[in-house]
Design brief:
Layout: E1 6-11, E2 15-21, E3 28-33, E4 38-42, E5 46-53, E6 75-80, E7 87-90, E8 95-98, H1 102-108, E9 117-122, H2 133-148, E10 153-157, H3 163-173, E11 174-176, E12 179-183, H4 196-207, E13 213-219, E14 227-231, E15 235-237, E16 246-248, E17 255-258, E18 263-266, E19 279-281, E20 289-293, H5 300-308, E21 313-318, H6 329-337, E22 341-346, H7 359-367, E23 370-371, H8 377-388, H9 393-399
Protein backbone atom coordinates (compact mmCIF):
# COMPACT_ATOMS: atom_id res chain seq x y z
CA UNK A 1 0.00 0.00 0.00
CA UNK A 2 1.43 3.38 -1.08
CA UNK A 3 0.38 7.00 -0.97
CA UNK A 4 -2.13 7.57 -3.77
CA UNK A 5 -3.58 4.05 -3.76
CA UNK A 6 -7.35 3.63 -3.45
CA UNK A 7 -7.93 1.15 -0.63
CA UNK A 8 -10.62 -0.46 1.47
CA UNK A 9 -9.64 -0.74 5.13
CA UNK A 10 -11.60 -3.08 7.37
CA UNK A 11 -11.68 -2.76 11.16
CA UNK A 12 -13.75 -4.82 13.57
CA UNK A 13 -16.76 -2.51 13.26
CA UNK A 14 -16.32 -0.42 10.11
CA UNK A 15 -15.07 -0.32 6.51
CA UNK A 16 -13.35 2.76 5.09
CA UNK A 17 -12.71 3.41 1.40
CA UNK A 18 -10.47 6.20 0.21
CA UNK A 19 -7.13 7.45 -1.10
CA UNK A 20 -4.05 6.83 1.03
CA UNK A 21 -2.48 10.09 2.25
CA UNK A 22 0.91 10.76 3.82
CA UNK A 23 0.84 10.31 7.59
CA UNK A 24 3.13 11.93 10.13
CA UNK A 25 2.33 9.15 12.63
CA UNK A 26 3.82 5.78 11.76
CA UNK A 27 1.10 4.06 13.82
CA UNK A 28 -1.74 5.57 11.80
CA UNK A 29 -3.03 5.13 8.25
CA UNK A 30 -4.68 8.27 6.85
CA UNK A 31 -7.09 8.17 3.90
CA UNK A 32 -9.27 10.72 2.14
CA UNK A 33 -12.81 9.45 1.73
CA UNK A 34 -15.20 10.28 -1.11
CA UNK A 35 -17.03 12.83 1.04
CA UNK A 36 -13.83 14.92 1.11
CA UNK A 37 -12.95 14.30 4.74
CA UNK A 38 -9.78 12.65 6.01
CA UNK A 39 -9.82 9.84 8.56
CA UNK A 40 -6.94 8.41 10.57
CA UNK A 41 -7.09 4.72 11.50
CA UNK A 42 -4.80 3.16 14.09
CA UNK A 43 -2.88 0.27 12.52
CA UNK A 44 -3.58 -1.89 15.56
CA UNK A 45 -7.32 -1.69 14.77
CA UNK A 46 -6.95 -2.71 11.11
CA UNK A 47 -7.95 -6.30 10.30
CA UNK A 48 -7.65 -6.18 6.50
CA UNK A 49 -6.52 -3.81 3.73
CA UNK A 50 -7.64 -4.31 0.14
CA UNK A 51 -6.02 -2.30 -2.66
CA UNK A 52 -8.80 -1.31 -5.05
CA UNK A 53 -6.67 0.72 -7.44
CA UNK A 54 -2.97 1.49 -7.57
CA UNK A 55 -2.21 5.19 -7.56
CA UNK A 56 -0.25 6.93 -10.25
CA UNK A 57 2.42 9.54 -9.69
CA UNK A 58 0.51 12.84 -9.97
CA UNK A 59 1.28 15.20 -12.81
CA UNK A 60 0.82 18.86 -11.96
CA UNK A 61 1.68 20.46 -15.28
CA UNK A 62 -1.32 21.84 -17.08
CA UNK A 63 -1.41 23.77 -20.36
CA UNK A 64 -1.63 27.57 -20.01
CA UNK A 65 -5.13 29.01 -20.20
CA UNK A 66 -4.06 31.79 -22.54
CA UNK A 67 -6.57 34.26 -21.12
CA UNK A 68 -6.26 37.78 -22.49
CA UNK A 69 -6.70 40.82 -20.31
CA UNK A 70 -10.08 42.49 -20.41
CA UNK A 71 -9.47 46.25 -20.85
CA UNK A 72 -12.75 46.98 -19.07
CA UNK A 73 -11.63 45.26 -15.85
CA UNK A 74 -9.13 46.33 -13.21
CA UNK A 75 -5.81 44.58 -12.74
CA UNK A 76 -5.53 42.80 -9.40
CA UNK A 77 -2.34 41.19 -8.11
CA UNK A 78 -2.82 38.23 -5.77
CA UNK A 79 0.22 37.59 -3.59
CA UNK A 80 0.40 34.22 -1.85
CA UNK A 81 2.07 33.85 1.53
CA UNK A 82 0.66 30.41 2.31
CA UNK A 83 -2.50 29.25 4.02
CA UNK A 84 -5.40 27.44 2.40
CA UNK A 85 -7.43 30.16 0.72
CA UNK A 86 -5.53 29.99 -2.57
CA UNK A 87 -4.88 26.29 -3.04
CA UNK A 88 -5.84 23.37 -5.21
CA UNK A 89 -6.40 19.75 -4.31
CA UNK A 90 -4.74 16.78 -6.03
CA UNK A 91 -7.44 14.17 -5.64
CA UNK A 92 -5.05 11.36 -6.53
CA UNK A 93 -3.07 11.89 -3.35
CA UNK A 94 -5.37 14.17 -1.40
CA UNK A 95 -2.61 16.72 -1.04
CA UNK A 96 -3.40 20.44 -1.01
CA UNK A 97 -1.02 22.48 -3.16
CA UNK A 98 -0.67 26.29 -3.09
CA UNK A 99 -2.13 28.03 -6.14
CA UNK A 100 0.83 30.17 -7.15
CA UNK A 101 -0.06 31.40 -10.62
CA UNK A 102 -2.93 33.32 -12.15
CA UNK A 103 -3.93 30.20 -14.09
CA UNK A 104 -3.97 28.17 -10.86
CA UNK A 105 -6.21 30.73 -9.18
CA UNK A 106 -8.60 30.92 -12.12
CA UNK A 107 -8.83 27.13 -12.37
CA UNK A 108 -9.64 27.01 -8.66
CA UNK A 109 -12.04 29.99 -8.69
CA UNK A 110 -13.14 30.73 -12.30
CA UNK A 111 -15.57 33.41 -11.07
CA UNK A 112 -12.56 35.72 -10.70
CA UNK A 113 -12.53 36.16 -14.49
CA UNK A 114 -15.75 38.18 -14.29
CA UNK A 115 -14.34 40.52 -11.66
CA UNK A 116 -10.79 41.47 -12.64
CA UNK A 117 -7.66 40.65 -14.61
CA UNK A 118 -5.69 38.44 -12.25
CA UNK A 119 -1.94 38.17 -11.76
CA UNK A 120 -0.68 35.63 -9.23
CA UNK A 121 2.65 35.39 -7.48
CA UNK A 122 3.98 33.37 -4.54
CA UNK A 123 6.21 35.44 -2.29
CA UNK A 124 6.45 32.78 0.43
CA UNK A 125 4.74 29.56 1.47
CA UNK A 126 4.56 29.31 5.24
CA UNK A 127 2.15 28.47 8.02
CA UNK A 128 1.00 31.80 9.38
CA UNK A 129 2.11 30.91 12.89
CA UNK A 130 5.64 31.01 11.45
CA UNK A 131 5.23 34.60 10.22
CA UNK A 132 8.10 36.92 11.21
CA UNK A 133 8.45 40.73 11.22
CA UNK A 134 11.12 40.32 8.54
CA UNK A 135 8.49 38.65 6.34
CA UNK A 136 6.20 41.67 6.78
CA UNK A 137 8.95 43.71 5.15
CA UNK A 138 9.11 41.26 2.25
CA UNK A 139 5.35 41.50 1.75
CA UNK A 140 5.50 45.32 1.82
CA UNK A 141 8.22 45.31 -0.82
CA UNK A 142 6.19 42.93 -3.02
CA UNK A 143 3.12 45.19 -2.71
CA UNK A 144 5.15 48.21 -3.81
CA UNK A 145 6.54 46.32 -6.80
CA UNK A 146 3.10 45.17 -7.97
CA UNK A 147 1.56 48.65 -7.68
CA UNK A 148 4.46 50.19 -9.58
CA UNK A 149 3.91 47.52 -12.27
CA UNK A 150 0.33 48.66 -12.73
CA UNK A 151 -1.81 46.79 -10.20
CA UNK A 152 -5.04 48.60 -9.32
CA UNK A 153 -5.44 46.59 -6.13
CA UNK A 154 -3.66 43.94 -4.09
CA UNK A 155 -5.01 40.75 -2.54
CA UNK A 156 -2.79 38.85 -0.09
CA UNK A 157 -3.68 35.26 0.73
CA UNK A 158 -2.62 34.49 4.27
CA UNK A 159 -3.12 31.88 6.98
CA UNK A 160 -5.70 33.05 9.49
CA UNK A 161 -3.79 32.55 12.76
CA UNK A 162 -1.67 35.70 12.45
CA UNK A 163 -3.44 37.51 9.62
CA UNK A 164 -4.52 40.37 11.92
CA UNK A 165 -0.90 40.95 12.94
CA UNK A 166 0.18 41.19 9.29
CA UNK A 167 -2.75 43.45 8.44
CA UNK A 168 -1.73 45.79 11.25
CA UNK A 169 1.94 45.75 10.22
CA UNK A 170 1.14 46.57 6.59
CA UNK A 171 -1.20 49.36 7.71
CA UNK A 172 1.77 51.16 9.28
CA UNK A 173 4.43 50.17 6.73
CA UNK A 174 2.60 50.74 3.42
CA UNK A 175 1.13 54.06 2.28
CA UNK A 176 -0.64 53.25 -0.99
CA UNK A 177 -3.47 54.84 -2.95
CA UNK A 178 -4.98 51.41 -3.73
CA UNK A 179 -6.85 48.81 -1.66
CA UNK A 180 -4.74 46.10 -0.01
CA UNK A 181 -6.92 43.17 1.02
CA UNK A 182 -5.85 40.22 3.18
CA UNK A 183 -7.90 37.06 2.71
CA UNK A 184 -7.80 33.74 4.54
CA UNK A 185 -9.81 30.56 4.95
CA UNK A 186 -10.88 28.80 8.12
CA UNK A 187 -11.64 25.56 6.26
CA UNK A 188 -9.18 24.19 3.69
CA UNK A 189 -10.18 23.85 0.06
CA UNK A 190 -10.33 20.03 0.29
CA UNK A 191 -13.30 20.24 2.67
CA UNK A 192 -16.95 20.55 1.59
CA UNK A 193 -17.41 23.36 4.12
CA UNK A 194 -14.49 25.39 2.76
CA UNK A 195 -14.88 29.16 2.86
CA UNK A 196 -11.86 29.72 0.61
CA UNK A 197 -13.57 30.51 -2.70
CA UNK A 198 -16.18 32.96 -1.36
CA UNK A 199 -13.60 34.79 0.74
CA UNK A 200 -11.28 35.10 -2.26
CA UNK A 201 -14.08 36.30 -4.56
CA UNK A 202 -15.12 38.87 -1.97
CA UNK A 203 -11.51 39.95 -1.46
CA UNK A 204 -10.99 40.54 -5.17
CA UNK A 205 -14.27 42.46 -5.35
CA UNK A 206 -13.05 44.72 -2.55
CA UNK A 207 -9.70 45.18 -4.31
CA UNK A 208 -11.50 46.67 -7.33
CA UNK A 209 -13.22 49.35 -5.25
CA UNK A 210 -12.09 53.04 -5.30
CA UNK A 211 -10.73 52.82 -1.75
CA UNK A 212 -7.29 52.71 -0.18
CA UNK A 213 -5.76 51.23 2.95
CA UNK A 214 -5.28 47.75 4.39
CA UNK A 215 -8.28 45.54 5.07
CA UNK A 216 -9.21 41.95 5.98
CA UNK A 217 -12.03 40.12 4.18
CA UNK A 218 -13.57 37.03 5.78
CA UNK A 219 -16.98 35.38 6.20
CA UNK A 220 -19.53 37.58 7.94
CA UNK A 221 -21.55 34.68 9.38
CA UNK A 222 -21.22 30.91 9.60
CA UNK A 223 -23.21 30.27 6.41
CA UNK A 224 -22.38 31.22 2.83
CA UNK A 225 -24.23 34.49 2.38
CA UNK A 226 -21.82 37.40 2.78
CA UNK A 227 -18.37 38.55 3.85
CA UNK A 228 -17.23 41.57 5.83
CA UNK A 229 -14.55 44.10 4.93
CA UNK A 230 -12.70 44.87 8.17
CA UNK A 231 -10.20 47.66 8.73
CA UNK A 232 -6.74 46.11 9.13
CA UNK A 233 -5.98 47.80 12.47
CA UNK A 234 -9.40 47.15 14.03
CA UNK A 235 -9.86 43.41 13.48
CA UNK A 236 -8.84 40.24 15.23
CA UNK A 237 -9.40 36.49 14.99
CA UNK A 238 -11.92 35.83 17.76
CA UNK A 239 -12.65 32.12 17.30
CA UNK A 240 -10.37 29.18 16.61
CA UNK A 241 -12.50 27.46 13.98
CA UNK A 242 -15.72 29.28 13.03
CA UNK A 243 -15.85 30.65 9.50
CA UNK A 244 -16.91 34.06 10.83
CA UNK A 245 -13.98 34.13 13.27
CA UNK A 246 -12.81 37.64 12.34
CA UNK A 247 -14.53 40.53 14.09
CA UNK A 248 -14.14 44.29 14.06
CA UNK A 249 -13.36 45.38 17.63
CA UNK A 250 -14.82 48.55 19.18
CA UNK A 251 -16.10 49.51 15.76
CA UNK A 252 -18.15 48.11 12.89
CA UNK A 253 -16.90 46.58 9.63
CA UNK A 254 -16.31 48.93 6.74
CA UNK A 255 -18.56 47.05 4.32
CA UNK A 256 -20.71 43.99 3.71
CA UNK A 257 -19.87 42.07 0.51
CA UNK A 258 -22.20 39.70 -1.35
CA UNK A 259 -19.97 37.39 -3.45
CA UNK A 260 -22.97 36.12 -5.43
CA UNK A 261 -24.54 39.40 -6.55
CA UNK A 262 -21.17 41.26 -6.44
CA UNK A 263 -22.83 44.01 -4.37
CA UNK A 264 -20.91 45.93 -1.71
CA UNK A 265 -22.81 47.79 1.00
CA UNK A 266 -20.70 50.29 2.92
CA UNK A 267 -21.50 50.41 6.63
CA UNK A 268 -19.20 53.34 7.32
CA UNK A 269 -17.07 55.70 5.28
CA UNK A 270 -13.94 54.04 3.83
CA UNK A 271 -10.70 55.76 2.97
CA UNK A 272 -11.25 57.01 -0.57
CA UNK A 273 -8.62 56.49 -3.25
CA UNK A 274 -7.46 59.58 -5.12
CA UNK A 275 -6.78 57.55 -8.27
CA UNK A 276 -3.04 58.27 -8.28
CA UNK A 277 -1.77 54.77 -7.41
CA UNK A 278 1.07 56.37 -5.47
CA UNK A 279 2.89 54.03 -3.11
CA UNK A 280 5.67 54.35 -0.58
CA UNK A 281 6.81 51.99 2.12
CA UNK A 282 8.72 52.28 5.37
CA UNK A 283 10.03 48.91 6.54
CA UNK A 284 12.00 50.15 9.55
CA UNK A 285 10.91 48.05 12.53
CA UNK A 286 12.35 47.52 15.98
CA UNK A 287 11.76 43.80 16.40
CA UNK A 288 12.77 43.71 20.08
CA UNK A 289 9.30 44.51 21.40
CA UNK A 290 7.42 42.07 23.65
CA UNK A 291 3.73 41.46 24.34
CA UNK A 292 3.17 40.31 27.93
CA UNK A 293 -0.17 39.06 29.20
CA UNK A 294 -0.91 40.08 32.78
CA UNK A 295 -2.12 37.37 35.18
CA UNK A 296 -2.47 37.09 38.98
CA UNK A 297 0.92 36.87 40.68
CA UNK A 298 2.96 37.66 37.56
CA UNK A 299 6.61 38.18 38.50
CA UNK A 300 8.78 41.20 37.84
CA UNK A 301 11.44 38.76 36.66
CA UNK A 302 9.58 38.45 33.34
CA UNK A 303 10.00 42.13 32.49
CA UNK A 304 13.57 42.17 33.80
CA UNK A 305 14.37 39.28 31.44
CA UNK A 306 13.24 41.34 28.45
CA UNK A 307 15.12 44.42 29.59
CA UNK A 308 18.32 42.45 30.21
CA UNK A 309 18.03 40.95 26.72
CA UNK A 310 17.93 44.30 24.97
CA UNK A 311 14.21 44.79 24.37
CA UNK A 312 13.22 48.38 23.60
CA UNK A 313 9.47 48.18 24.14
CA UNK A 314 6.96 46.16 26.17
CA UNK A 315 3.20 46.00 25.60
CA UNK A 316 1.28 44.89 28.68
CA UNK A 317 -2.04 43.15 28.06
CA UNK A 318 -3.61 44.26 31.31
CA UNK A 319 -6.81 43.36 33.08
CA UNK A 320 -9.97 45.48 33.04
CA UNK A 321 -9.39 49.14 32.30
CA UNK A 322 -5.63 48.61 32.12
CA UNK A 323 -4.42 47.17 35.39
CA UNK A 324 -1.55 44.99 36.62
CA UNK A 325 -0.76 43.54 40.07
CA UNK A 326 1.82 45.07 42.38
CA UNK A 327 3.96 41.93 41.91
CA UNK A 328 5.12 43.39 38.59
CA UNK A 329 5.66 47.00 39.70
CA UNK A 330 9.35 46.49 40.40
CA UNK A 331 9.82 45.05 36.91
CA UNK A 332 8.00 47.99 35.34
CA UNK A 333 10.18 50.48 37.20
CA UNK A 334 13.29 48.54 36.12
CA UNK A 335 12.16 48.69 32.47
CA UNK A 336 11.28 52.39 32.49
CA UNK A 337 14.52 53.31 34.30
CA UNK A 338 16.44 51.52 31.55
CA UNK A 339 14.74 53.48 28.76
CA UNK A 340 12.22 50.82 27.74
CA UNK A 341 8.84 52.13 26.55
CA UNK A 342 6.05 50.33 28.45
CA UNK A 343 2.46 50.68 27.24
CA UNK A 344 -0.80 49.24 28.55
CA UNK A 345 -3.65 47.60 26.61
CA UNK A 346 -6.53 45.45 27.84
CA UNK A 347 -7.14 41.71 27.52
CA UNK A 348 -10.92 42.21 27.68
CA UNK A 349 -10.98 42.54 23.84
CA UNK A 350 -13.95 44.94 23.80
CA UNK A 351 -13.86 48.27 25.61
CA UNK A 352 -11.16 50.83 26.23
CA UNK A 353 -8.24 51.47 28.56
CA UNK A 354 -8.73 54.17 31.20
CA UNK A 355 -5.98 54.23 33.80
CA UNK A 356 -7.44 57.22 35.66
CA UNK A 357 -10.43 55.44 37.17
CA UNK A 358 -8.81 53.27 39.85
CA UNK A 359 -5.77 53.77 42.05
CA UNK A 360 -3.93 50.84 40.43
CA UNK A 361 -4.04 52.56 37.07
CA UNK A 362 -2.83 55.83 38.51
CA UNK A 363 0.08 54.08 40.25
CA UNK A 364 1.07 52.41 36.99
CA UNK A 365 1.07 55.78 35.22
CA UNK A 366 3.34 57.22 37.94
CA UNK A 367 5.72 54.33 37.23
CA UNK A 368 5.82 55.45 33.58
CA UNK A 369 3.30 53.13 31.93
CA UNK A 370 1.48 54.74 28.99
CA UNK A 371 -2.15 53.71 28.54
CA UNK A 372 -3.27 52.91 24.97
CA UNK A 373 -6.87 54.05 25.17
CA UNK A 374 -8.21 52.30 22.07
CA UNK A 375 -5.82 49.77 20.57
CA UNK A 376 -5.86 46.01 20.35
CA UNK A 377 -2.80 44.46 22.02
CA UNK A 378 -1.63 43.07 18.67
CA UNK A 379 -1.94 46.48 17.04
CA UNK A 380 -0.11 48.17 19.91
CA UNK A 381 2.70 45.62 19.54
CA UNK A 382 3.14 46.32 15.84
CA UNK A 383 2.75 50.09 16.24
CA UNK A 384 5.41 50.16 18.95
CA UNK A 385 7.75 48.19 16.67
CA UNK A 386 7.12 50.72 13.91
CA UNK A 387 7.54 53.79 16.12
CA UNK A 388 10.72 52.54 17.80
CA UNK A 389 12.14 51.76 14.38
CA UNK A 390 11.66 55.33 13.21
CA UNK A 391 11.64 57.74 16.17
CA UNK A 392 13.49 58.46 19.38
CA UNK A 393 11.97 57.37 22.68
CA UNK A 394 10.43 60.74 23.56
CA UNK A 395 8.74 60.99 20.16
CA UNK A 396 7.50 57.40 20.51
CA UNK A 397 5.80 58.31 23.80
CA UNK A 398 4.02 61.22 22.09
CA UNK A 399 2.97 59.23 19.04
CA UNK A 400 1.77 56.01 20.67
CA UNK A 401 -1.65 57.58 21.34
CA UNK A 402 -1.83 59.59 18.14
CA UNK A 403 -4.06 58.13 15.44
CA UNK A 404 -1.78 57.41 12.45
CA UNK A 405 -3.64 54.94 10.22
CA UNK A 406 -7.07 54.50 11.82
CA UNK A 407 -5.89 52.40 14.75
CA UNK A 408 -7.48 54.75 17.29
CA UNK A 409 -11.12 55.80 17.39
CA UNK A 410 -11.93 58.44 19.96
CA UNK A 411 -15.46 57.10 20.23
CA UNK A 412 -16.13 53.36 20.16
CA UNK A 413 -18.95 51.89 18.09
CA UNK A 414 -20.43 48.95 19.98
CA UNK A 415 -22.73 47.63 17.26
CA UNK A 416 -22.60 43.82 17.20
CA UNK A 417 -20.90 42.58 14.03
Amino acid sequence: MEVGDVVKICTKDTEYVGVVLPSIDENTVVIKMKNGYNVGILKENIEKIEIIEKGKKPEYKLPPLGIKKNPNLKNIAILSTGGTVASRVDYKTGAVHPAFTADDLIRAVPELLDIANIEGKAIMNILSENMLPSYWKKIAEAIKEEIENGADGIVITHGTDTMHYTASALSFMVDADVPIILVGAQRSSDRPSSDAALNLISGVLAATEPIKGVYVVMHGESGDTFCYLHEGVKVRKSHSSRRDAFKSINTIPVAKINPFTKEIEYLREPKKSEGTKKVKINTNLEEKVALVKIYPGISSDILKFYVDNGYKGIVLEGTGLGHAPETIFDGIKYAVDNGVVVVMTTQTIHGRVNMNVYSNGRKLQKLGVIGCEDMLPEVALVKLMYLLGNYNVEEVKKLINKNLVGEIEYRSRFDCY
